[in-house]
Every structure is written in structure tokens, then in C-alpha cells.
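Subgroup meeting minutes
Present: P.N., E.W., G.H.
Scribe: E.W.

1. P.N. recapped why we're keeping a running log of single-chain structure predictions: easier to compare across weeks, and new members can see raw inputs and outputs side by side.
2. G.H. added today's entry (367 aa).
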Amino acid sequence: MSKYLKSLIPPPHTSDKHAEIIKTERLVWLDWARAFAVASIVFCHCTENTFNMSPEWVQSVPHWQGFMRDLLFTAGRLGVPVFLFLSGCLLLSRHPCRTFDDVLSFYGKKWFPLLRCWLFWTAIYAVINGLGTQEAWNTFGRQLCLILYPPYSHCWYMPMIIGTYLAIPLLSMLIETGGRSLFYLLLAFSCFASLSKGIEHQQFFATLLDMSFIGDQYVTYILLGYFACLVAPRISRWQAKFLAVAALLLCLMLARQYYAWHLAGMNVGLWYTDWRLIACTFVLFLSFRLFDSCKVRLVTVLSKGAFAIYLMHNPVLQALKGAGLLLFSEPWLNDFLLFACTFSLSVLLFLVLSKVPVIARYLFLMK
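Output recorded in log:
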């Protein structure tokens, strides 16, 4: 077992160039994973805007409606972990850092453009929501300083990933110079920290150790993403099918668990600290290997536009909701209708705006 694990980690990259970017062919299964992730995130926010998310609502409706709400919401929660796995998979494998100059180069090529892009979008969101009062300008200033989130539910992610990007080149340096043993040690400690954190009211087990220095669950996602990148080439088609079925069952079990808690009146929300969600999404991420030979143009377009769709979808969603798009009495029908319209319009906006080079480069981070 030890020899197998060691074989998964390649030797440190040898190059005299700083922050060498390893160019490889486009991996189709990662396109599928990215397209799924952005669709899942949009669906999550549509679910939040069409269903009553309180536990009291679950207790007042038939069981199938309550379970459907939690199942749809759980499906929407799968997107962010997949994005984080992608970050670990691509950044740690294709942007190795071995020297301090490599780290600075990573910050210049990856971190600073991401920060600049987010500040631009913070300004765009502020304009959309109005800057007609002094209070609005004060709020905007705090948002630019990363003290306050813009008023959209997806905006928590960007400050988190910007902060995580600060740690990625340091993790890469440890992996490149420390070798496979140090990587597995980091992965083990990170998983232990995430597992012990549990969820709001229940822990798998408690620990008195302070392991916040390794970034808790978000670094766990990054390291597991890199591990998945190393393991994925060894996964056969039948193994990918098995993983897909396992991911579906784990998702159903996760939704069933939260439905039971909500039915009991417990106000517990599914968040990315839950070790069950980490396990479910890791299995799901590996299962996308099933599509490695299934190249579809639409999936490639969605993959390339995933970041742009993510940034634009919430203003589009709120505009459609404000225009009275919720036409049905059943919330699940409104959920699917709102998702279809929001996602389609966001993709259309991406296709149009990405034709403008300045927008594509600075607002969508397209090369």
C-alpha cells in the first residue's frame, strides 16, 4: 500500500525557469466537472430563492415536498467543493513552486489578477445596487477593502479563494521540496482537522488541537483535489461508473440526514465544513473520469465560461425574480424555471461580453 501511494506522487519538477507552467492537453473530464460545478451553484441559489428554507416549513408540508427541498439544495451544494478540487488539481500540478521567485511569480500571474478582477466586480455590483447615498459609498468602500461582502449570496466565495490562493504556492513549495511523504502528512492533518470540525451541532469527534494554520476544510479540498489529479489516470471506466453510483447514493443519504434534522425542528444548514459533504463531493469529482472521452462543445463552452457565469448569475437571478418570473404555486417548479432562465441568460451574456477583449481579460480572466 505504501509503495502504491508513493507511486502516485511524481518527483519534483526539474526546471531552471521560475514558476514553470506545465502545459498539458485539455482534460475533457475536468471540463465536465467545471460545467457541472457552475450549474450546481446557480441551482443552489435558485433553490434558496424559491423555497422557504426554514425547518418550520418542512414540518408543515407533505414529506415528499420537504425531502425534495433538501435534496435539491444538497445537489446545489456540490458545486463549490468541485470548484475547490479543480483549483487544487490544476494549480498544484501545473504551477509548481520550488523557489521564492516561483512564489512571487505565482502571486503576480494568478493571485493579483484574481484580486483585481474581484475589485472590478465589487464596483459593478455597487453600481447595480445604487450609489446614490453617502451610506452606499461608505458600504462600497468597506467592500473594496474586503471588510464587507457585496449583497449577493455567492460573494463569500471570492474573498475565501483569494485568501486560499495566498497559501497555494507555499503548499506547492512544501510538496515540491518535501516530497510525497510530506504531502501525505499534510493531507492527513488537513483531513483530520476537517473531520473533527464536523457540523454546527454535531461532531464526528472533537479535538483540542489548533490546526487552523493549515486552513481547515478549504485547504483539505485543495489537497484532495491534487490527490484526485494524481489518482484519476488510474481509474478505469467501470470504476468511474461505480464512483458515480456511490456519489449519487451519498448525496441521497446526505439529503436524507438533513431532512431528518429539519423535520425534528433543528435549524441546521448544510455547509462545506460537513465531512459528509467533503466525502460525497470527492467521490463525485473522481467519477467525472467517466466522461474523459466524451467531448461535447457545449460542455467546453460552459467550462470556459464558468467563472464568468458564476460572477454574473446572481444579479441576473434577482432581476428575473423581481420581474415576477415565479409563476407557479409549487416551489420546485419555480426552482427549475428560475434556474433554466438564469443559467441560459448568464451563458448568453458570457458569449456576448467575452467577445470584448478587455472584458474577457480583466473581468472573466480569460487568456
